[in-house]
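Input (structure):
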């Protein structure tokens, strides 16, 4: 890349301190200000487990994951990149920075006192058994000598932490920084009329390559798991409507598989597509996501992954084929999850109250009830459209079932996936 290095702001700190939340806030501020910006959560580009014994933090995979998705963001024209992810040593920082040699890296550590850190971590509702380890890691970071400044987050709202981070990073990224609007995201754009008028999946039609079709495309035509060829790598894609639980179910499948001793990889497509502004002809950023999926999979495969779980929104067969062609040599099974309107509304309201997983870019917590209900109505309309189109090799109804039950049912209906 010609020209000056691209500014990269890396937020680090202990688990639960708010790295992803603050990173998303800075990304959103810059997006609203019209600055071309990208965001990468390092955990989301390193989900390939079990991790090796000599690298339990999976830093080798995560650093390579950052390097894998950086070119697509850079080529999309971002003027700055926000990254969040834990790191413990200066050597690890150098390893990550070596993957983005044309970026100017600024490391910023977030900290919180024990009481605040415990409250935040437990508030996530995930792995409370790790709390003691989290506190120990936080204390170790306090004793360490990571390069870069530190921001104390105790008692501060997220926008204020974001402001302090950028201020202490020299007005990062120094692109009209004084004009940026620090206000939190406003859910008001969730107007039913606006949502209803937007095309579901406006990616331009995919141009199939000449010659023999890819394994993934053949599997799509021949029918999911029935089309898997011997020796091809199994890929399971769990798709939406919104709030149906695709990320939760997909991650549960991933956890079940690697828990059985099979090394598996997981990609949430939404998490590898944070790049704004999106192209006018591809508002879903499918081209960027497909390119990043294609860059991540060989890295995961080389790290020992024997299968891949993917979650993400899709509505049209040509979009599915574009993703399938990004991972040649694989056998793709597309599973559509279904939930009725009442169940979708219940789940949306639950997330609005703070329930469900905390995933960058997917937070509904704190939204007004009327906005949540409009979101639920949109999800129901998209569910009905998916039912009409019949997209997918199989469909699993999630109503009245636990996440574990749905995950088990998906795998069973996919022929005992990844068998």
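Output (sequence):
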């Amino acid at each position: 890349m010609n020209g000056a290095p691209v500014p990269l702001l890396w937020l680090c700190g202990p688990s639960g301190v708010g790295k992803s939340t603050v990173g998303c806030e800075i990304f959103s501020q810059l997006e609203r200000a019209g600055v071309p910006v990208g965001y990468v959560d390092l955990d989301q580009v390193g989900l390939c487990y079990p991790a090796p014994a000599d690298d339990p933090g999976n830093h080798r995979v995560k650093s390579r994951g950052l390097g894998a998705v950086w070119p697509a963001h850079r080529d999309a024209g971002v003027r700055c990149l926000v990254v969040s992810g834990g790191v413990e040593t200066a050597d690890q920082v150098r390893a990550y920075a070596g993957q983005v040699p044309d970026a100017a890296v600024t490391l910023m550590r977030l900290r919180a006192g024990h009481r605040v850190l415990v409250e935040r971590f437990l508030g996530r509702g995930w792995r409370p058994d790790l709390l003691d380890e989290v506190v120990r890691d936080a204390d170790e970071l306090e004793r360490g000598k990571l390069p870069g400044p530190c921001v104390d987050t105790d008692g501060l709202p997220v926008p204020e932490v974001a402001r302090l981070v950028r201020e202490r990073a020299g007005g990062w990224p120094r692109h009209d920084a004084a004009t940026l609007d620090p206000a939190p995201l406003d859910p008001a754009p969730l107007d039913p009329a606006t949502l209803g008028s937007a095309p579901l999946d406006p990616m331009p039609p995919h141009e199939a390559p000449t010659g023999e079709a890819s394994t993934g495309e053949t599997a799509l035509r021949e029918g999911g798991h029935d089309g898997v060829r011997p020796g091809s790598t199994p890929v399971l894609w769990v798709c939406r409507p919104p709030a149906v639980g695709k990320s939760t179910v997909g991650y549960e499948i991933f956890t079940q598989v690697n828990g059985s001793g099979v090394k598996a990889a997981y990609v949430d497509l939404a998490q590898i597509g944070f790049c704004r502004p999106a192209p006018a002809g591809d508002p879903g950023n499918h081209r960027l996501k497909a390119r990043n999926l294609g860059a991540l999979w060989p890295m995961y495969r080389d790290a020992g992954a024997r299968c891949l779980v993917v979650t993400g929104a899709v509505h049209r067969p040509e979009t599915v084929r574009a993703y399938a062609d990004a991972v040649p040599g694989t056998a793709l099974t597309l599973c559509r999850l279904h939930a009725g309107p009442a169940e979708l509304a219940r789940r949306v309201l639950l997330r609005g109250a703070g329930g469900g997983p905390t995933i960058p870019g997917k937070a509904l917590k704190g939204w007004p009830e009327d906005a949540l209900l409009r979101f639920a109505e949109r999800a129901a309309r998209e569910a009905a459209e998916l039912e009409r189109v019949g997209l997918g090799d199989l469909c699993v109804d999630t109503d009245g079932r636990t996440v574990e039950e749905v995950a088990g049912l998906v795998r069973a209906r996919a022929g005992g996936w990844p068998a």
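Notes: The CA atoms of residues 205 and 310 lie 21 Å apart. Residues 192-413 form a domain with the Rossmann fold fold (CATH 3.40.50.300).
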